[in-house]
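Pipeline run #58 for the internal structure catalog. This entry was flagged by the ingest filter as a single-chain record with no existing model, so it goes straight to prediction. Upstream metadata was stripped on purpose; only the residue string is passed forward. Reviewer on rotation: M.T. Logging verbosity set to normal.
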Amino acid sequence: MPTTHPASIADHLAAIKDPRSERSKRHSLHEILVLSICATICGADGFVAIEEFGIAKQDWLRRFLDLPHGIPSPDTLGRVFALIDPAPFERCFVAWMQGVFDATEGEVVPVDDKKVATTARKAALHMLGAWATEKRLLLGALETEARSKARLYRIGVA
């Protein structure tokens, strides 16, 4: 039976109405929400920590976010979250998590770090991955600087 992939968090968040006026939309609501969710999953506990995560992981985030104006400041994040209606946000987040749960059939998701072979010209590559093993579904993979630094907070939302 083929594995179905859940809709992305961005797909789910598209249903949330942006409460800001047009002139104050330097950063898209979608990008602010995806950045904030990734950072929070990875251990960020406030708007400063979300900004720090965004700056540290900007190259990775640009794989799926445009970020034309870079990472939003903690003040911008605070203003946006003060305006968002939490009920639609909760519904979207729960629907996304339900999709992930359904796709993995509720299995435990192991997080694994691997060292890829060293060559004479290049140092070893260290990778962290999250797998839904029974469904043979890669939920996320991320290159890290070194095995000693390969921690769960380096995994983002795939």
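catalog note: The two ends are 23 Å apart (CA to CA).
catalog note: Residues 147-158 have pLDDT under 50 and may be disordered.
status: ready for reviewer M.T.
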